[in-house]
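Records of this kind hold a single protein each, on a pair of labelled lines. With that in mind, the following record should read easily:
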Amino acid sequence: MTLTAHLANGARPLEGGTLTWRVTQPAGVYHPLQPDFITYTNANSGLASDAVNDVFVDSEGNVWFATAPVSGGGPGEMAGGGVSILLTGGAWITYTTANSLLPSDDIRAIAVDDAGNAWFATAPYWDDQLEREVGARLSLRRAGGTWTVYTATHGFPDCIPTSLALRRDGQVWLACEWEEETNSPALFSFSPECGEFVTHTVTSTHGGLPSNRVTDLAVDGMGDLWVTTAGGAGRYTGLTRVLWQSTLPVDLAGGAKPRPLRPGRRTGESLPA
């Protein structure tokens, strides 16, 4: 018995009883599907550096890359780095300290809201004029082209940024490298409206944040912030009060699995951030 499959370009026998799909060109030549993997480097594209720390795809489909300087021609020389944008049309735009108000070309994290306002977190850097290291910065490039840079004067924490996330309420969330010796805070939120940075720890969230060692941030479709840590994951809903939910306790080494979150379960509250 011969089985056939009725396709758009006519009937074809089934091969061994298995339906095989093929994509055809107008001339009728069959080509197997091959996944395409395109590599972008400083040499073959507008990427400012091959050291890429973060990537963000905005609502328009533009791809934003956070890059860092790499070793230059001479001993101790660094070159490249900055923010590179691959536009949907294929063109590239790059922002650096030379053509923008970026305080450093060492960009550690990036996030863009639906209005096109872009946030960049830069690492501490050496200032030749001041002859000293300058702390990390949080920079905002608005869709209209104006810039604002937030520093320690505004309360920006003394840390090395690792991740950024934007909530729908306008809050900017920042994760930083964690120092084991001091168990230093590594999660901060910033409200552009009031211009204040707020520190979030296991203590201040009453255990809603499972660990001060924060590894990544993400915002879901409901606007909730998810924070992954070395001790589990925490969810921030940010309703009328700051509401945290946690997967604690978590003992990955011992094989224990985190308990699933139950709707409406409150593990801790703190004052509004």
